[in-house]
Structures are given as structure tokens and as C-alpha cells.
Amino acid sequence: MQNQWKSDMQPVMMTDDIAFVGGTPVSVHALIGRDGLILIDSGYPGMLSGVEENLRALGLHLGDVRFVVHSHGHIDHYGSTAEIVRRTGAQTLIGREDADIVDGRRDLSWAEELKLDRPEPFTPERTFSDGETLTLCGRTIRCVHAPGHTEGTYAFFIETTVNGAPMTAAMHGGVGLGSMQRWFLEKRGLPLSLREDFIAGAQRLMEEHVDIVLGNHPQQNDTAGKTVRMNGAVNPFVDRSEWRRFLDNCARQVRSMLDEEERTLRHS
After folding, report:
1. Three-state SS at 113
2. Can you say whether residue 39 is alpha, beta or left, with left for phi > 0 and alpha for psi between -120 and 50 degrees?
């Protein structure tokens, strides 16, 4: 990742008060609050210049960031946090299970697997747990533990509006298969049961009513394609069936991985 990454995706107001300001490598979302901004994740190290550029394009300002809330402890989601804290004084939050990754006590950042230097650590001012509701800048974020991708991955449920109509936006904090593969879990001394935990968590989350899916990576919810289709009459981010479809597909992928793993072990 370049030290001065430039924006490579168009920023967009997905709702009246939720903005996408990340890029192709990973999502960063900004929630507009009463007295400042809340960022959901910070991107890779070096992404901050592009995030700042995207904020500015929407009439928002990095200096107004008051909090950075993290979906989990991988380099692509907290890599720019220490720099944000230096520049803004923002407070940081993460699920309690991943706090010892971002403060440097455990090396589970996925940096080694990506052949990158470990990201600069930070000490979160606050951790959260399953079912906890955060109230930040007048906004509420309900946190649901969704382990698998990491032990401390969380889903977030955020009340928002679209053209003034109340809606619920949600993000699953981590669905990638790489950190749920057997080789990685065994290498890092993590329980293989995290894969079953992921499936169970996805099934639980499917029962939630969600109007708008926020992709933890933009490919997960076609952020770029929906941005192109935005117009005054229709908001393509509003899709009340997408959440369940997305989670069902993710659970199927993990089940397929486990089935393939079992076949391989049987024939080895």
C-alpha cells in the first residue's frame, strides 16, 4: 500500500447521514452526528489521504472526526487509526476480543500474510461487547458479536434516514475466508470452532430487519455500481432483501470450505 494512497472510488452519501469515503481496497464509512463524525474503520496504513479527500468532496472534514469504531482487528480496518488519532484527537473503540491485536500484544493483524509491516498500534479508549449499544455524537450503534473472521468481529446496526424516512443500516464486520482457513487457525493457535461460530452468527443475524447493507469491503454490496445508479428518485442502497441474501451466501461459502477441507483430510 502506497504511503499516499489517493481516492480511487467516488464517495457517496448512502443515506441522509451515512457516507462511503473509502476505496477499492476497503470500506470506510462516516456517520454524521450532532457534534462531529464517527468513522467505521480507518483503512490500510497510508489510506488516510484518500479518505480525507473523499470526506472533503462531500463537504465533510477530517478534523471533525470524534470517534473511530472498528469492525475487527485486521490491518485493512485499523491501519490508519493511529494517524487519525494524532491529527484529530479522536477516541477509538473496538470489540473487547480484538483489543490486544490493535494495541500490539498479539500479532493477528493479517499484515504478515499480506507481506506488509505491522500497523502502528493504538490503545483503544473503550471496548464493547455483544449486545452493547454505543451512543456517540448523538448516534447509536448496536454491536452484535459475530466471530469467525476474527475472535472479535462485530456486526453493527445503525439507525438512519433516507429522504427523512427512518431506516436501519447494517454491516457484518468480517466475512473473508482467509483467516478462517485451517492452516491459519492452527498456525496462530486459534480454535477451529471459529468457522462454526461464523455460520451460527450469520444465521442469527439473518433474523434482523435491515434496509441498507454497508459493505465491510465495497465489493460486498456493490458500492461502486450503486453509486453510479444514484439519482434523486431512487436510492439503490435501499434493498430489504439484500442482508439475508448476503449472509446466506457467506455462510454457504464457509460450509463449502469446511466440506472441501473434510474431503481433503479423508483422502490424505
Report:
1. coil
2. beta
Contacts of 242 (CB under 8 A, 6+ apart): 210, 213, 221
- Between CA 89 and CA 79 the distance in angstroms is 16
Q: What are the respective helix, strand and coil percentages of the chain, to the nearest 5?
A: 35, 25, 45
Q: What is the model's pTM?
A: 0.96
Give the range among 62-76, 196-210, 220-234 with minimum mean pLDDT. Answer: 220-234
Show the cell assigned to 126: 473503550
Mean pLDDT of all residues in 183-196: 97
CA-to-CA distance for 35 and 48, rounded, in angstroms? 21
Q: Which long-range contacts (CB under 8 A, 24 or more apart) does 235-242 make?
A: 235/14, 235/15, 235/162, 235/163, 237/14, 237/15, 237/162, 237/212, 237/213, 238/162, 238/167, 238/211, 238/212, 239/211, 239/212, 239/213, 240/209, 240/210, 240/211, 242/210, 242/213
* Mean pLDDT for the stretch of residues 189-216: 98
Count Cβ atoms below 10 Å from residue 192 Cβ, excluding itself.
Answer: 12
Residue 182 C-alpha cell reads as 485451517
For the beta carbon of residue 199, count every other beta carbon within 10 angstroms. Answer: 17
pLDDT greater than 80 at residue 3: no
Contact between residue 210 and residue 169 where contact means Cβ atoms under 8 Å apart: yes
pLDDT at 36: 98
Q: Quick check: 1 pLDDT over 50?
A: no
Question: What is the rounded CA–CA span in Å between residue 125 and residue 128?
Answer: 10
